[in-house]
Amino acid sequence: MANTDVRAAGRADRDLIVRLAFGSMAAQTLRAAVRLRVVELLGDTPRRAAEVAVDAGAEPQPMTRLLRALAGLGLLKEHAPDSFSVTPAGALLDPRHPDSLTSFVRMFTEPAIVRAWEHLDGSVRTGDIAFDAVFGTDFFSHLAQHPELSAEFNAAMSQAVSETAAALPRAFDFGRFTTVTDVGGGDGTLLAGVLDAHPGVTGVVFDTAQGLAEAPKTLERHGLEGRCSLVAGDFFRSVPKGSDLYLMKSILHDWTDDQAVTILSHCREVLPPGGLILIVEPVLPEVVDTNAEADVTDGGVTYLSDLNMLVNVGGRERTRKDFEDVCHRAGLSLTSVTPLTEAAPFSLIEAVAD
Q1: pLDDT, tens digit, 9 for 90 and up, residues 159-186
Q2: Which residues form the O-methyltransferase C-terminal domain (predicted)?
C-alpha cells in the first residue's frame, strides 16, 4: 500500500473516532432543535435564521450557529448565507409530521436516560444497573413518580413502534387467530395496526395503568373500541386468559433472563392448544459482522441499545440462542425467526408450548 493510501486510511480511522466522540453533542443538538421548535418555525419554505430566532425567543447569531450545525448533520439545508430549509430527515423533528420522532428525541436525550450512561464503565465492571444507583430507584418506578416524564416515555414508545405497526400486519398472518393480546402494549399503536389490517380479529392491550394512559385515545382514533379491550395488570404476576396469540414487542429486552422467563412462563400458562407467542425484537448475530447488510444499515444502534439496557434497566438484546434458552426455560419451543425487513432490525420470533 502506498504511503498516501496508508495516510488516507489512517485519516479515515481518526475521523471515525472523532465523529463518535462528538455523538453526544449531536444528540443534544437534536434536543435543542426540538425544544426550540426549529423545524416547526422553519415551515415549508426557506427562512432566515434571524426570523426563526425571533419566533423562538432566541438570539440571532446563536440561532444561525444552531441551524448551521443542523445543516451539517443533514437535517437542514442552507441555500444562501443565513437562509435555511428543512430536509426530509429534518421534517421528522416536526411534531405535526405523521412519522414524527420528536418525543423519541426528547426521551432519548433526556437527562434521566443519559445520566446513567456516564457510569457505563462501572456497569461493565460490576453488571449493576447504573440508573438505580444514580437515581435511587429503578427506571420504571422513576417514571411512575414523574407523570410528565412517563407521558413523554409513552409518546416516545408510540413513535418508535409506528414503523413496526405498519410493517407487521403485512409480514405475519394474524388472520388465522381469533384474539391477540399485546403484552406490554402501551398506547395500543401496534395492536391497532394489526386490527386495522385484520377486521376479523379482536384484541387486548395489556399493560400497567400508567402504560395504558393514552390507549383509549388510540382505540377511539382507529374506531376499535368495540374490538379491543384494555386490561391493566403486571406481567410479572400474570397475563390475561382468552387469546390464541400473545404478542410482545420490545418487552423482553428490558429485563434480565430470569425476568424474561417469568413473563414468558405466564404467557405459557394461558396459551391454548394451537396458540402462539410472537416476540418482536432484534436478534443479534452470534458474531458481529460489519460487512453484513443488517449491521451496516443499523449503524450499530442495536448494540448501543444493548448497552442502554445494561445501564438503565438491566435487560439485554439477545441472539437466537439466547431466545431459545429463555423460551426453553419457560416451557416453550422457538420454532422460527424471520427478519422483519420493512422494520429492521426487528425479527419475528415464534414460540409454541413444548
Answers
A1: 999 999 999 999 999 999 999 999 999 9
A2: 117-332
